Amino acid sequence: MSEEALRAIAGQLARLADLAERNAPPPNVAPDFAAADAFVWQPEARRLQPVARVSRVDLSLLRGIDRMRDILLENTERFARGYPANNVLLWGARGMGKSSLVKAAHASVNLMEGVPAAKLIEIHREDIETLPELMALLRDVPHRIILFCDDLSFDGDDTSYKSLKAALEGGIEGRPDNVVFYATSNRRHLLPRDMMENERSTAINPSEAVEEKVSLSDRFGLWLGFHKCSQDEYLEMVRGYVAHYGLVVDDAQLQREALEWATTRGARSGQ
Predict the structure, then answer these.
(1) Using CA atoms, how far apart are residues 61 and 77, in angstroms rounded to an integer?
(2) Residues forming beta bridges with residue 38, ordered by sequence position
(3) pLDDT digit string (tens) for 153-200?
């Protein structure tokens, strides 16, 4: 082979190597957990983006959900102290404080004396397929991690729920002891009824097809249901905000305007 041909081949190999290097995924960057108590997972860059100021409300402002509040606080405190804790699915009516409760519980537990600070990491719904990769990144870090996905649900032919099942089960290694998963959803079973019924009608064994999808919710040890509030609970929420912000308003006027607001919005909720 001529020297010119060898040079041409060498040039092509160099270009291929350069292309492969540019297309290769970026290396994992060790998270700087000292930067913040809350982070957002960015799968493209394989890094955790610190959140300097978390958008949340004070736990005392979450009214009408006392039982769910106490259960989630206890689970979160146990986890932060290093004891076994459950994955949690907070499901139900919109605007009733599901995501607010997760963020408020995290902040409240971190303020408890003698409790090591846990880290809150949000993963977006569209990034659920990268959850196993994130779990692997967090497995050996010296912190307790709450993974949080807001408004989690699956539609149509979306099969990313299988990634969630695999991550919660943990595969052969098991779920990392330092990680729990909290999710909020409007659906108890995370998948729409018509999707499960379609699986039933087309499957060779209908019961097994539906079982696979319903079993996703079973990966959560705790289910906390949030239902529409009563008028009294709604007014209690409003009065709580009025007191918190130091507003001066006649109670009769407050009640009248609050009920009018709820009527025009078509629903009563803390939102």
Answers:
(1) 20
(2) 120
(3) 777 666 777 777 777 776 666 678 899 999 998 877 776 655 445 544
Strands 47-50 and 38-42 come out as: antiparallel
Reported pTM? 0.78
87 in Cβ contact with 222 (< 8 Å) = yes
d(CA 165, CA 217): 9
List the strands of the sheet with 222-226, edge to edge.
47-50, 38-42, 119-122, 145-149, 179-185, 88-92, 222-226
Give DSSP secondary structure letters for 200-250: HHH-SSHHHHHHHHHTTGGG-SEEEEE-PPPHHHHHHHHHHHHHHTT----
Residue 217 class from Cβ within 10 Å (0-12 exposed, 13-18 middle, 19+ buried)? middle
The closest alpha carbon to 187, from 196, 178, 179, belongs to 196
The CA distances from residue 69 to 101, 184, 190, 212, in Å, are: 7, 14, 21, 30
